[in-house]
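Structure tokens please, single chain.
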Amino acid sequence: MSPKSRSMIELTIMDNIITLVEMLENATAFLETISVARTFIDSGVQILFCKLMQYVKTSKKLMITFMQDEFLTASEHQLQDLSWEIHRLKLADKLIRFMYNRTAIKCCSQLTTMMNCIISYAPFRASDVSKFSQEFSTYTQLYGEAVINVSDLEKQSILKAMGLSKGHWYQCPNGHVYCITECGGAMVESQCNECGARIGGSSHRLLSDNQVATAMDGATRSAW
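Here you go.
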């Protein structure tokens, strides 16, 4: 192999590594903001949450070490595996976000299955993503959290187009998403375009059967 060809390959690997580092940082962004320990009512949930947090921290450290050591020599197969592992941490982040503000959640088969998908050192593949997503949908609905049926890419496009801060997105009693612009507080009542249910509220008070659409932008309370 000529020096020029080798240099091009190394540059490609470096570029891929940089992209993966950015993906890793985005996948673990919420974890880095947690400074206060969470206490759950269910001791089983407490144990699983702590294990999940530790797994993410350990995995991130191992990945960073690998990328620092192999940033010029990593094979295509290794980079693909690394990409899958980052996707695993992205799903872990999704579960951590959901659990963090719900200290009364219970330990059940769905939570155990999701944890088994994430907390593992076996290769992570599409079948694991599918299993996790199915269990996450069931688990969140147990706690009145309707899962928004759009992809992450579609959500990003919508949020970028609207240009609003967190807390402007809500869900009707049937889980359909709507947006309140300006201050983000509910000032008038209306009807859901999808099902006709009452949405909005008055005097900055949201109707009791509506809720903040946490799954849309990560907000846990209204912008108001």
